[in-house]
Amino acid sequence: TEAESEQWCIADEQTPDDELQAALSWACGSGGADCSKMQQENQPCFLPNTIRDHASFAFNSYYQTYKHKGGSCYFKGAAMITELDPSHGSCHYEYNP
Predict the structure, then answer these.
(1) Apex 14 CA angle, 20 and 45, nearest 5
(2) First to last CA, the chain
(3) Residue 63: how many CA atoms within 13 Å on its side-chain side?
(4) pLDDT of 20-42, one tens digit each?
(5) Which residues contact 75 (CB under 8 A, 6 or more apart)?
(6) Residues 3-19: pLDDT tens digits?
(7) Using an 8 Å Cβ cutoff, are 17 and 23 in contact?
(8) How far out from the chain centre does Cα 58 lie?
(9) Extended strands (E) in the chain
(10) Which residues does residue 79 pair with via DSSP β-bridges, in sequence order?
């Protein structure tokens, strides 16, 4: 069997901010993503403080937590899979094999 490449779930560049905001709110709310690392100014993933960056972090948190339990990287088309680690600086995007 081929080794699966590592995959992260991030916001799709084509998705408008209002759709990203709705998906972000769901992911951090009833979706169960861990959004603590981006919600306060002193947290490592607060910057860059854009809806797209925050959505990417939330989407990935949700995806890594639930991908083996039926969760997908879709968010009504707002998200996409990437094989490039989106971590930057002190902001670490988790990856669960």
Answers:
(1) 50
(2) 15
(3) 26
(4) 999 999 999 999 999 999 999 99
(5) 23, 26, 27, 59
(6) 668 999 999 999 999 99
(7) no
(8) 4
(9) 8-11, 79-82
(10) 11
d(C-alpha 33, C-alpha 25), whole Å: 10
Contact (Cβ atoms closer than 8 angstroms) between residue 33 and residue 95: no
Q: How many residues does the chain have?
A: 97
CA R_g for the chain: 13
| 42-45-46-51 Cα dihedral, nearest 10 degrees | -170
Q: Whole-model pTM? A: 0.94
**Residue reference for tokens 């709110």:** 25
Contacting residues for 77 by C-beta, under 8 A, at least 6 apart = 12, 15
Burial status of residue 48 (CB atoms within 10 A of its CB: 0-12, 13-18, 19 or more)? exposed
Nearest-angstrom CA–CA distance, 39 and 71: 23
